[in-house]
Structures are given as structure tokens and as C-alpha cells.
Amino acid sequence: MSAPTDPAAAMLAEVARIQADALARLAAAPDAAAVEGLRHEVLGRSGALTALLRGLAAVPAADRPTAGAAANAARIALEAAVTERLAQLTERELAGRVATEGLDMTTPGRPVRVGHLHPLMTVERDLREIFHAFGFEVFEGPEIESDLMNFELLNMPPDHPARDLWDTLYVAEPGSVEAGSPRPAEDGTILRTHTSPVQIRAMRALKPPIRVLMPGRCYRYEAVDAAHGFEFFQVEGLVVDRDTSLADLKGMVEEFARAMFGDGTRTRFRPGYYPFTEPSAAFDIGCLVCGGPGCPACGRTGWMTILGAGMVHPEVLRNGGLDPDEYQGYAFGMGIDRMTLLRHAIPDLRLLMTADLRFLQQFAGGR
Ligand code: DAH
Fold first, then answer.
1. Interatomic CA distance for residues 114 and 254, integer angstroms
2. How far is the CA of 308 from the centre of ligand 1 (A)?
3. DSSP assignment, residue 63?
4. Does residue 49's CB lie within 6 angstroms of at least one atom of ligand 1?
5. Are 244 and 330 in contact (CB under 8 A)?
6. Going by C-beta distance under 8 Å and a sequence separation of 6 or more, which residues neighbour residue 187?
7. β-strand 328-335 against 231-241: which pairing, if any?
8. Measured from the CB, is residue 155 less than 6 Å from ligand 1?
9. How far is residue 71's CA from residue 84's CA, in Å, rounded to a whole number?
């Protein structure tokens, strides 16, 4: 049989030859690399089939569509065959590994580790929930505060002895920023020693009736030990309305203690002193460790103080932009760290500020 002489017939024959040859070699290809090599050789940029398609110009115009279609069909068929052969080889390789390495495809995946809230934040969240039910909204203030907000507007002018109650970390002591400095506002900047300055901010930002909960981090210049940290968390509450009384305050904190520590919780309200409240009170619950007779945890008194409170001082109302003849309010503040220690019987406050997972993972359950 003589070779066809017309270019179209020659091209069709060449396409068929390349396809048959490629399919035979594919079937025999031992691995993915061999398949890839073949793909390159036949279908690549300078592959046999690609070169053939370029030669289409030499085919008479009338035969070009037939010849072109044949070459394209061959390309599509070969690409499909390559994909199929690759899948076959992968499957065979896996089967081989299952047999030789004991790879078990039905083994469950590794579990995803889910984190959880830090115990301090769980307590804070519980406080938010309890007070939310009492109608409080959350209002937050800055941790870097002015001496003015933290002390002066809370009825503690410079040199007021009550300032000694709060060992303060100064960013810039009042009077320390020189006149003409580009940042005069930094003068008298401190790390807030309590959340009470947020009371002023809330009164200035909101209109009575005000019912806000103000959680946040505070800082003091403390010698750190099992019971004291230089950073800690507080939650402050403030209620301002036209006829708010000490009885409202007492009722509120008692209800709170029951919601937080259980229905049978014993409570005690006793006089205290804070410059920003008048009268001021301390609020105690029956010792959670000994339940009454007295133990080391409660200083052998049977009681544990959980918050400070009082009726907002008229001067503080005025500093918040409110007329004390028209409005009264009560406020309270408590430490979240103390409460967390109590809840979980944790012996040392410092554990709460380590990132030790052996400690923290014990609280994965939330409570
Ligand atoms: N700010 C006080 C402290 O850090 C706690 C406190 C006491 C807050 C009485 C109050 C309050 O709102 O009325 O020790």
C-alpha cells in the first residue's frame, strides 16, 4: 500500500498513528512521572500533536475543517486518557501503601481542639449576664486615664489623703510634662486604678435614667503576691435616677449575691468609706470556704467582702454634669479576680496571669 499523497489524508493518518501510539504507551506507563513525560511529548507546547496542528496550513482549505476536527478530537481523547491513567496510578499506589504500611483509610481524623474562655472572663461574662437581667447596659472606658477622671472628679483633689488607698502607676505625673511640649494632654496620665472614673464618663455620655455596668482591667503599683496583682479586673455599676435610694442599692447587691453565689447566700451590709460615695458601704457574703465559723480564707471572721458601694456623692454627680437636687444615684465596684479565686478555690492569684495550659485547661467546662 502506497502512502497517501494528499495532505489531508496524510494528516488524518498521522493523527491516528500518534493517538494509537500514545494510548499504548499510556497503558504501559509505570508511574505518574512517565504519564507526565508523555503528556509533555504529545500534548505539550512543542508536542507531536501540537506540531501537527500547526501544519494545518498546508492542508487545502476545503479539507481543513475535517483534518482540524480530527486532530482536536484526538487531543481531547488523549487528555482524558492521561487524567484517567493518573487516577488509576494514584489509586494503585494508595492500595500498595495500605498493604505495605498498614495505612488505614477509615481512621477518624485528628480532633480539632476548641479553646475556651479564661476563668476570669467566664466570671466577667456571668456578671454581665446577671446585670443584663437587671436592666444594666455595658459601658466601657479607657485603661489609660487622666488623673482628673481617676481622682479629682471623684472627689479626690491633689494631695487628698484618700489617694493613698490607690497605689498609682503614673504614665506622666501631673506637672511632669514641660510647658510647650507637643503633647500637653499627657500631663497627669495614669493607668486607671479602678473602674470608678468610667462613672464620670457614663454620666457625661448618657442621660438619666442611667443603669450601666462598667467592666475592665485596672492597674496598681502593688508588690505582687498570692493575693495582690499589679493588674486585675473590676466591674463597676452605676444607677442614676430621680429617686434612687440606699434601699435600692441594698436590694440590688443582695439580689446580685444570690444570683452569683446561690439562693442561700448570707449577706451583710456595713458602713465603709469612699470619697466618691456618701454614705458608703462594704458588702460581705458568708465565707464560701468555712460557711460561717471562721477560717484562714476569711481571716477567721466568717465573712468575705465582695464589693464596695454607696450613694453617689453630690459633688461627683455635679462633675458628671448632673444636678444633685434633681438626681440621686448609687454605685458599686467589685474585683473579678477575687471572685474567680473564690469560685474555683484557687490558692494563688498569680496563676490567673500565667499562660500555663495545665492550669487553664481545668476550666474548659466554663464554670
Ligand atoms: N473603686 C473602688 C475601689 O477600687 C470600689 C468602689 C467602691 C466602687 C465604692 C464604687 C463604690 O462604685 O461606690 O476600691
1. 36
2. 5
3. T
4. no
5. yes
6. 172, 174, 175, 176, 177
7. antiparallel
8. no
9. 20
* pTM reported for the whole predicted model: 0.70
> Is 279:250 a contact under the CB 8 Å cutoff?
no
Inter-residue contact 116 to 366 (CB < 8 Å)? yes
- Contact yes or no for 321/203 (Cβ under 8 A): yes
CA angle 41, 47, 48 (to 5 degrees): 100
Sign of CA dihedral 147, 310, 239, 221: positive
5: pLDDT strictly greater than 80? no
Task: Tell me the sheet residues that pair with 329.
Answer: 240
Give the amino acid at 54. Answer: R
pLDDT (tens digit per residue) in 269-307: 999 999 999 999 999 999 888 888 988 878 899 999 999
CB 301 within 8 A of CB 294: yes
Task: Please tell me if the CB atom of residue 139 comes closer than 6 angstroms to any atom of ligand 1.
Answer: no
Contacts of 366 (CB under 8 A, 6+ apart): 116, 117, 122
Condensed to tens digits (0 to 9), the pLDDT of residues 168-212 reads 898 888 888 888 887 777 888 999 999 999 999 999 999 999 999
Cα 350 to Cα 131, 191, 225, distances in angstroms: 28, 20, 7
Regarding the beta carbon of 332 and ligand 1, being less than 6 Å apart is answered yes
| Residue where the block lists cell 476563668 | 119
Q: Which residues pair with 303 in a beta bridge?
A: 286
Please tell me the residue having the least CA distance from ligand 1 atom 2. 333
Helix (H, G, I), strand (E, B) or coil at 301: coil
Helix spans in 60-196 (H): 64-101, 119-133, 147-150
Extract the C-alpha cell encoding 89.
496510578
Tell me, using a 6 A CB cutoff, whether residue 220 lines ligand 1.
Answer: no
> Quick one: CA dihedral 166, 169, 171, 172, positive or negative?
positive
> Do residues 10 and 16 lie in contact, with contact meaning Cβ atoms separated by under 8 Å?
no
